[in-house]
């Protein structure tokens, strides 16, 4: 049973407004590799000329699940000079914040170097992600990956 309350109604209304806004400014797409098939979970995906993927997830407090969650992520296309960022309003009526997500190619690079005994790229990246709400000082951490990397790399969440 989905929980009924004024707060949850307001959060559902916020999600509906965002969905309408995104539908009017981007194309809705399917992502079968990512959509959860769980009661109360809903995933929505969009794309545009500048956004490779916009993702909105809501989780309703159903059954034993006592959490209401919504998060939004935007993944820019390679030619767009924007970082990956996300926003997460929560049921405590606060906004978590915008965050800078480490670029996948840099994560892969640091892990590859670490397996070869060079821990410096890993430690450098770790210093950057310790402050996810501040832009990195080194612009390298904001640069997009190569087109080849983008076309072949997939994360566990299908991004």
Describe this structure as you would to a colleague.
The chain is an alpha+beta fold. It folds into 2 domains: 100 residues, no CATH class; 58 residues, no CATH class. It is built from 4 helices and 6 strands. About 6% of the residues have low confidence.
Number of helices: 4
**Which bin fits the share of residues in helices?**
25-40%
Largest sheet features:
6 strands, antiparallel
User: Which geometry do the CA atoms define?
Assistant: globular
Based on CA atoms alone, the radius of gyration comes out at: 18 Å
How far is the N terminus from the C terminus?
31 Å
Kindly state the mean pLDDT as a whole number? 75
Number of strands: 6
H/E series, N to C? HEEEEEEHHH
Strand order of the largest sheet: 1-2-3-4-5-6
Q: How large a portion of the residues is in β-strands, by DSSP E?
A: 15-25%
- The secondary-structure class comes to alpha+beta
The domain count comes to: 2
The stretches of 5 or more residues where confidence is low (pLDDT under 50) are 91-99
What are the SSEs and their pairings?
Blueprint: H1 6-25, E1 27-29, E2 41-47, E3 51-59, E4 69-76, E5 85-87, E6 99-100, H2 104-115, H3 120-129, H4 147-152
List keywords for this structure.
single chain; 159 residues; alpha+beta; 2 domains; six-stranded antiparallel β-sheet; 6 strands; globular
What's a quick, concise take on this entry?
The chain contains 4 helices and 6 strands; from the N terminus they run αββββββααα. It is α+β, with helices and mostly antiparallel strands. Strands 1-2-3-4-5-6 form a 6-stranded antiparallel beta sheet.
């Amino acid at each position: 049973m989905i929980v009924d309350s004024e707060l949850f109604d307001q959060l559902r209304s916020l999600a509906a407004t965002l969905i309408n806004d995104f539908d009017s400014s981007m194309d809705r797409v399917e992502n079968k590799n990512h959509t959860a098939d769980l009661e109360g979970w809903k995933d929505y995906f969009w794309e545009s000329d500048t956004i490779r993927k916009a993702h909105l997830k809501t989780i309703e407090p159903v059954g034993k699940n006592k959490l209401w969650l919504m998060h939004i992520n935007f993944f820019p296309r390679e030619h767009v000079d924007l970082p990956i960022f996300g926003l997460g309003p929560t049921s405590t009526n606060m906004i978590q914040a915008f965050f800078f997500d480490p670029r996948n190619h840099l994560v892969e690079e640091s892990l590859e170097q670490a397996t070869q005994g060079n821990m410096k790229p890993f430690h450098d990246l770790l210093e950057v992600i310790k402050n996810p709400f501040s832009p990195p000082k080194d612009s390298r951490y904001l640069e997009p990956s190569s087109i080849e990397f983008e076309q072949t790399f997939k994360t566990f969440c299908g991004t």
